[in-house]
Write a structure and sequence with these properties.
With 383 residues, the chain is of the alpha+beta class. It is built from 8 helices and 24 strands.
Length: 383
């Protein structure tokens, strides 16, 4: 029997909704089947916590007298894009500090960047804002310099163009030399394998055809409430899929946003990746309404039935011809080792399963406590 968003929200408001995490749903579906699971469960919560480089914040720094139209902006010496109106700027999380002490010792290495600025603001620390302008009749000032905290900023919006990748590669390096990538350090001769997904807890793996996710979907974002505002950059759902609908390689992505002032440093953490640069670890969780047996089946897929590709990030990847070394399940990846061409290779996640579970549990509690309703998307993501 199908359910509607209205029926599910009515149960939430009445304190009668049955809410489980995606990990719990795996056992429920395996034990009872999708039809029975759909009758008994109303919402499944998901979670992921990992570096998400395509992230940042729109910040209004506040005006001054005489007024200014900033053309160049720095926040704690990290450049922000100022090609916007007056005192608006966009701070990208991968942008490095121009005065980074580590870079002075090791050129190309960065300890501090845009992601760290966001974390500092959330921790209640004040930041130095500097700006330059070319001056106009209506904006006469040419310089601005002030120290300010998050609470004093007129506006701060976390706006992430590409988060929550639906599946992603397992990265190896078959060359002789160690390489440093956004997937972490990859030792030469295939000595390690890194992956970045929460597997059966990952949001888009629990709704592979985006039946319940789209414009206006309410989510857990950075410890506060955010929204899906469109499909993300590099959204590419047209890849080969398994029988359960799950893509076997990088596919869908999300653009998400929310009020930065509602968020916490527990769920937005500045990251420095050796040899690559800066990023931001983002906590993201999406509730999946169980509208029918099909949705129950999707949310009941286990790690052993979720697969991704093993891709060489050495010379092949950098030259644009990434060699494919086959397919592995997330159960295999999470076991600590996989086999690549008859060789056992140690695996390590860039995403935190502990944090992903926490997010799913927090979102579950919000719903059970009637603090969070399920929003029907205005339009779902392109498929």
């Amino acid at each position: 029997m199908a359910k509607t968003y209205e029926e599910i929200n009515a149960k939430i408001k009445a304190g009668e909704a049955v809410v489980v995490t995606a990990e719990e749903m795996v056992d429920i579906v395996q034990t009872n089947g999708p039809e029975k699971a759909a009758e008994n469960v109303d919402v499944v919560t998901t979670g992921t916590f990992a570096p998400m480089c395509s992230s940042g914040a729109f910040i209004n720094t506040g005006q001054m007298l005489p007024t200014i139209k900033t053309s160049r902006v720095w926040i704690n010496k990290v450049p922000a894009y100022a090609g916007l109106a007056a005192v608006d700027a966009f701070l990208g999380v991968t942008e490095p500090c121009e005065d980074d002490p580590l870079n002075k010792i090791y050129p190309g290495e960065f300890k501090y960047g845009g992601g760290h600025v966001i974390e500092d603001l959330l921790r209640g620390e004040e930041v130095l804002i500097e700006a330059k302008a070319y001056g106009t009749d209506c904006y006469k000032a040419r310089k601005m310099k002030k120290i300010i905290g998050l609470k004093d900023l007129p506006y701060a919006l976390l706006c992430n163009p590409r988060n929550g990748y639906q599946n992603y590669n397992c990265a190896i390096n078959v060359t002789e030399k160690t390489v440093y990538t956004y997937m972490g350090m990859l030792k030469g001769k295939c000595q390690n394998a890194n992956y970045c997904s929460a597997g059966e807890l990952s949001p888009l793996l629990n709704d592979p055809y985006y039946r319940t996710i789209g414009l206006g979907t309410r989510i857990f974002l950075g410890g506060g409430i955010g929204y899906v505002t469109w499909h993300g950059t590099q959204h590419n759902p047209g890849v080969d899929r398994a029988d359960n609908g799950v893509p076997r390689r990088p596919s869908g992505t999300l653009m998400v946003q929310g009020d930065l002032k509602q968020m916490t440093a527990d769920w937005l953490r500045g990251v420095s990746l050796l040899g690559y640069g800066n990023s931001l670890a983002v906590g993201l969780g999406i509730p999946i309404p169980i509208l029918d047996a099909e949705m129950a089946a999707y949310t009941g897929v286990s790690d052993k039935n979720l697969y991704t590709r093993v891709i060489d990030y050495g010379n092949d990847y950098t030259n644009g011809v990434a060699r494919d070394y086959g397919e592995v399940s997330y159960a295999q990846l999470k076991s600590g080792s996989i086999v690549v061409e008859d060789r056992e290779v140690q695996t390590a996640p860039l995403s935190s399963m502990t944090k992903a579970r926490e997010i799913a549990e927090i979102l579950k509690k919000w719903i059970v406590d009637k603090q969070f309703l399920i929003s029907k998307p205005t339009t779902t993501l392109p498929i």
